[in-house]
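Lab notebook page, bench 4
Experiment: in silico fold of construct C2
Operator: M.H.
Input chain length: 110 residues
Purpose: comparison with the prior construct
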Amino acid sequence: MNKSIATPKEPHILAKPRVGTDRVSNLTLACHPCNQKKGNQPIEKFLKHKPSILRQVLAQAKAPLKDAAAVNSTRWKLYQSLQETGLPVSVGTGGRTKFNRVKYGYNYAA
């Protein structure tokens, strides 16, 4: 990768034209020249001569999934504990949240 100082970009590990998503687990950091050089290539092909960097990128991609699993476990334990109080408790999904945000014209707060 280019060692020069450049503004970092957030390229997709699996490019969007190859059905990659904008999820944090599919993003990594790279300088603009490297991002342009990678283009739509699979990360495995782009980094095939740099296996240590490839391992690092792929390992970092899995880390957010572990965090999400921990948050989900905590969320469900909290939900179960609240249900045990006998008070009315309801939950929603991210899909419902997005639906309401679009319906009522609220901007996404990142």
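Observations: The chain has a mean pLDDT of 81. The chain has one domain: 8-88.
Next step: discuss at group meeting.
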